Amino acid sequence: GGGKPPPHFCIFGEVCMIKLIVSDIDGTLLPYGSAALDEKLFELILRLRERGVIFCPASGRQYHSLRALFAPVCDELTYLCENGAIVYGPGPEDKAAVLGKTVMDRETALDLVRDILALPGGRPLISGANTSYILPGDPDYEHLMRDIKGNNVAVTDRPEDVPEDIIKLATYCPEGTGPTRHALGPKWDGRLSMCSAGPDWVDFTIADKALGLETLCAALGVDPGECAAFGDNWNDAPMLKKAGRGYIMATSDPNLRAQFALQCENVEKVLENFLEMGEI
Prior knowledge:
The chain is α/β, with parallel strands linked by helices. The protein has helices at residues 39-50, 63-69, 106-117, 139-148, 178-188, 209-220, 237-242, 254-257, 267-276; strands at 9-11, 14-16, 20-23, 54-57, 79-81, 86-88, 98-101, 124-127, 132-134, 153-155, 168-172, 193-196, 201-205, 227-231, 245-249, 262-264. The strands form four sheets. It has a six-stranded mixed sheet with strand order 10-9-8-11-13-12, with helices on both faces. It has a five-stranded parallel sheet with strand order 4-3-14-15-16.
């Protein structure tokens, strides 16, 4: 998966080692429809950590949800959450430092929530730092977010009552993202970072995963050129282009794959290659 790249890669004429590995989750580490990561990944993360290499999940998911997904190694990781809107350092959940947070203008966010609610079946998800806010009256949606996605969830009577900064908005699209993007795009595409995050979500932020990667690298003292990044969707593309080595999954949209020289069939195999070939 991904072949064996040369032992090192170059940036600005200098040889660089990989110091940071950032990976999308759904469609990249986790096949769509799967609920659990391959336990082999946890072993690889610990081997990387022993060599001083930091692993960071990069996802539209919430911090709490990502920690549960990576439970065996959760304190060892950094986290790029909510599509780059908030970045956490390593450590226990109640002690990990927020390395960066990008806040949406509140009136803009509430205007978008109203537009989502005006759509047939519109289901907004309002993200604070580590809480997902949903509106009452949809127990199936609450069950999805709380019990299946594993988020911290709070039900709020009105969007205006969300008691903290809003860092991301999303809308759940179980019938596919196309109609929602078509409906909301003319007003919102360009005003906010609007992207499909898998087959059934459209996300809106000011940040994107490239900004999240920049924030993380600055906090860790790592050059983005010393990063290897993995992703499968359009919302991953800015991050892959920012990293010194960006891998697109072989299952991705052909139009997206065409933008990247490095393709990957299995992230774990590429990480094994890094370890075996002394690239870290």
